[in-house]
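We were asked to recover a plausible sequence for a given structure. The inputs and outputs are reproduced exactly as logged, with field labels preserved.

PROBLEM: sequence recovery
POSITIONS: 649
GIVEN STRUCTURE:
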């Protein structure tokens, strides 16, 4: 069992969190309706009302009393259990009470609901942090450690499966990779650069290594960050403890910014080149190639050492002695001459010449980066957000469709938002003209003071009514803006459309090892299928859930079928699905005696051509089929036909 506090979100208010927990779209849907399909039991604690709508109003009223606190007034607790573990309602209630009491919320208002939209049973608890008597906003500090300690006590108390609570099993990056199937920046650095970074002997070597992969290391606050061109950054110390600011400065010396010139030229070569220029120019290295006249302006020296260029008859520069070397071309930026439209020469000042030198140096540096990446980073490895798929979707034909769908949705979003903005601008412009015209009429009227005030009030009300109507219209139009789907959501969408490859891709992403649990039909899968007319639900791990009207529930996973709620129609549907999924092979049954008997009865009653691997079950089925063969055949009932018509592949 794992208990954790949901990550805070600025957009997740009390109403939105409440609607999510009870699985309704918005607040208006709370009135006179039950909870959503993925919700099991709902419990109201320390609340006078047991109605969905009234309970929310009661929690809002208590929060409204506290006007001093500006921090979050809601606490969203999530309790999850292993796949095979499903405690009954009484134990869940006790677990909820013990966990809430451990962090000081036993007297607080709360609403809890179990969700069955995943293979893991999980319980959502929304707690009002405002105390009902003191009206203080209670914040449980270090709640993670308290919850984990209490989980260990609860597991021992109720005989639940023990879980490792000593440390967080997943970092934020690993969670992102599991759910979005996209490689994080920290994983990219750990995989490709971590060991090479440890071998760096200078800051410039570290900078050059990261630059080859379009990354930089820079100071931020009291530490260092590694970031890419899109601004995605990670702490350097999160890669390894050796990359903390103190340890790196102890190892490499005082932090240095990236010197682009140093990247491709040893320090002694760069220094000798600067001194050579200075000796030829008769100045210091910073002013190489510039002679200073009495008026303080720099003048370009026409020296043989730099004589790769000359002015032709049209006044343009041209090469004289073949191809100049890169160093010679760079040295010519020591002095420059600009041709005015009149053709006369204009001498540049020393500051202007240095600006030109800097720009040219940056251009040459970019050229050298491109050249050297072919040697030091021949593979061209770089981290790009949303373009670094993990192995599970590399090469998938669906991934290209996903990128196209994502791009189309982004284009559609921009189009709708631009249209709404244009419509809003026109509306408020027309509203302003209308308001000004009406205002002029009132001003010029010869009404009494009291009547004029009444007209102004009526005008203000009319204006406000127009604005409200327009906002409601825009809100309805805004609902048509398509939401961007992440990779798992796209796979779920395609799976509901009958794409077998999407179902298989979802199932490959599942990280849990296969486990035996109650009410399970096992075999070697031959086909992937979906019964569309039964309106199934596709979970993130690729499991397909069929809910029947009588309460029966069947989960179709990659290698097995599980009957979560046993009813006679559910047993019949499970055997029908097993025939399609596993073919003519004998079916292995794992579960309770009631479950096994229900399968035998369904197989006999509907004369299904199935065999059981369990010898005792097969003997009973064979004996009952023999007895049934002596009786006249009966027509299939309506439910039989409905399920058969519901099958589609």
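RECOVERED SEQUENCE:
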């Amino acid at each position: 069992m794992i208990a954790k506090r949901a990550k805070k979100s600025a957009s997740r208010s009390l109403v939105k969190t409440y609607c999510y927990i009870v699985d309704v779209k918005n607040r208006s849907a709370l009135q006179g309706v039950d909870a959503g399909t993925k919700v099991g039991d709902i419990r109201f604690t320390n609340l006078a009302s047991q109605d969905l709508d009234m309970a929310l109003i009661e929690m809002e009223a208590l929060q409204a009393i506290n006007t001093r606190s500006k921090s979050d007034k809601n606490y969203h607790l999530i309790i999850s259990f292993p796949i095979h573990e499903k405690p009954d309602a009484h134990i869940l209630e006790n677990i909820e009470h013990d966990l809430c009491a451990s962090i000081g919320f036993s007297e607080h208002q709360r609403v809890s609901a179990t969700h069955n939209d995943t293979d893991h049973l999980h319980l959502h608890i929304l707690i009002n942090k405002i105390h009902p008597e003191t009206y203080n906003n209670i914040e449980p500090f270090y709640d993670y450690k308290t919850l984990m300690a209490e989980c260990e006590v609860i597991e021992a108390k109720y005989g639940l499966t023990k879980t490792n609570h000593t440390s967080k099993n997943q970092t934020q990056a690993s969670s992102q990779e599991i759910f979005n199937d996209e490689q994080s920046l920290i994983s990219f650095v750990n995989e490709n650069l971590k060991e090479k970074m440890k071998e760096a002997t200078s800051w410039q070597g570290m900078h050059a290594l990261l630059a080859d992969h379009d990354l930089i290391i820079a100071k931020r606050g009291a530490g260092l960050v590694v970031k890419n061109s899109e601004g995605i950054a990670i702490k350097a110390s999160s890669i390894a403890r050796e990359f903390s600011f103190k340890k790196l400065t102890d190892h490499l010396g005082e932090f240095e910014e990236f010197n682009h010139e140093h990247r491709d030229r040893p320090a002694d070569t760069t220094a000798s080149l600067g001194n050579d220029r200075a000796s030829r120019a008769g100045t210091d290295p910073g002013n190489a190639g510039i002679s200073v006249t009495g008026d303080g302006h720099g003048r370009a020296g026409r020296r043989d050492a730099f004589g790769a260029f000359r002015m032709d008859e049209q006044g343009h520069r041209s090469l004289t002695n073949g191809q100049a070397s890169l160093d010679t071309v760079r040295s010519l930026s020591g002095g420059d001459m600009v041709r005015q439209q009149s053709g006369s020469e204009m001498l540049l000042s020393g500051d202007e010449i240095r600006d030109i030198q800097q720009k040219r140096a940056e251009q040459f540096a970019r050229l050298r980066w491109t050249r050297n990446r072919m040697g030091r980073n021949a593979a061209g490895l770089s981290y790009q957000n949303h373009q670094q798929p993990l192995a599970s979707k590399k090469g998938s034909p669906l991934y290209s469709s996903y990128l196209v769908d994502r791009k189309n949705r982004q284009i559609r979003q921009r189009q709708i938002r631009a249209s709404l903005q244009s419509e809003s601008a026109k509306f408020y412009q027309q509203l302003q003209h209308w308001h000004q015209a009406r205002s002029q009429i009132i001003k010029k009227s010869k009404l009494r003071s009291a009547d004029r005030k009444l007209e102004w009030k009526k005008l203000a009300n009319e204006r406000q009514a127009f604005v409200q109507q327009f906002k409601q219209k825009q809100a309805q139009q805004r609902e048509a803006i398509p939401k961007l789907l992440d990779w798992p959501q796209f796979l779920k969408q395609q799976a509901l459309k009958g794409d077998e490859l999407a179902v298989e891709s979802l199932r490959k992403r599942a990280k849990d090892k296969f486990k035996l649990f109650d009410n399970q039909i096992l075999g070697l899968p031959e086909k992937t299928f979906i019964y569309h007319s039964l309106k199934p639900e596709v979970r993130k791990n690729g499991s397909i859930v069929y809910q029947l009207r009588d309460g029966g529930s069947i989960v179709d996973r990659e290698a097995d079928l599980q009957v979560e709620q046993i009813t006679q129609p559910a047993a019949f549907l499970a055997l029908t699905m097993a025939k399609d999924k596993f073919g003519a092979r004998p079916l292995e049954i794992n579960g309770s005696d009631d479950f096994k008997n229900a399968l035998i009865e369904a197989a006999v009653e509907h004369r299904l051509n199935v065999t059981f691997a369990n010898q005792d079950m097969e003997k009973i089925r064979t004996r009952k089929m023999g007895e049934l063969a002596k009786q006249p055949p009966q027509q299939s009932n309506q439910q039989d036909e409905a399920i058969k018509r519901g099958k589609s592949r």
